[in-house]
Write a structure and sequence with these properties.
Elements lengths: L10 H6 L20 H10 L2 H5 L2 H15 L3 E3 L6 H6 L3 E4 L3 E4 L16 H4 L1 H13 L5 E7 L1 H10 L7 H9 L1 H25 L3 E6 L7 H22 L5 E5 L6 H8 L3 E3 L6 H7 L5 E6 L1 H6 L1 H15 L4 E5 L9 H13 L2
Parallel strand pairs: 1-4, 4-5, 5-6, 6-7, 7-8, 8-9
Antiparallel strand pairs: 2-3
Length: about 350
Amino acid sequence: MSHETGAKTKQLIRALRGESVERTPIWLMRQAGRYLPEYKKTRAEAGSFLELCYNPELAEEVTLQPIRRYGFDAAILFSDILVVPDALGQVVSFKEGEGPVLDPITRVEQLDDLDLGSVVERLQPVYETVRRLKGSLPAETTLIGFAGAPWTVATYMVGGRTSTDQAAAKLWAYRAPESFQKLIDLLTEATILHLIAQVEAGAEVVQIFDTWAGSLPEAQFRAWSIAPTRKIVHALRAKFPGLPVIGFPRGSGALAVDYARATEISGIGLDTGMSPAWARDHLQPLACLQGNLDPLLLVAGGETMRTAAAHILKTLGRGPFIFNLGHGIVPQTPPDHVAELVEFVRATK
């Protein structure tokens, strides 16, 4: 299967399998993005953000840009978690300075308008991007596919936009858990189809982004974050045994232990607020860890950044570990600081 290709030599895949590595692998969330002048140029050429996601030639180009600059150990497919609701038939757009705007789903009856059967067909341009990348990436670079976790995607579908408290989705889930479960089930199935298609096209690893997992209390975290993710991982592994899967339950704190155990993911992304020492003691025996430098330390750069990176490497570097940020690169990041970080991580033994 495609996820086995070159696995023996790829440092990132070795780390996710708990095997020994020659050096700490590094890639960064949102490594393709607005901090790079070449990205801005391609983005302008594409028209809208969604058009960029659905243009295989341009999406391939922006995925490759940070690899050319920094030689990261992994390239993550350039796309967005909201291509899934778009493919289901919900109206999705991205407004400059505002972010995503969706026609909100406020009643269970609206779920009947969503078409699970159209997802893979509508997202063919995304899989074409993956196929192109499979041929254009350096042999040592791992190709990561991804999707948003059902809970996180549901918060956008119900709320209609980014929200600080995810109130709309939480209130639906609290007031009518049975009908909310229908949305979660639909998204779980759509996510399985989307990730399977990415792996078939050439993705070697997949990451599941549960950006808003931390807003859920324990019982709901188990129901809406852990349970769907477990189902997705099991479906992927049934089709692709040994496929490395990274989960990123941002803000989950101590519940990350139960998340790692129950989902049986290969790797777990640590957010900025997670103590590396706590993660080493409680999570590293269960999965490869990935993280967790504060993206604003990357903006600051210099000695402060290097000291923080050294602490993370010293604390987590002995176990299975991939260096990354605790969330995505922010637009004001100087590209030179990214180069400095990569050089520092590669030089640290």
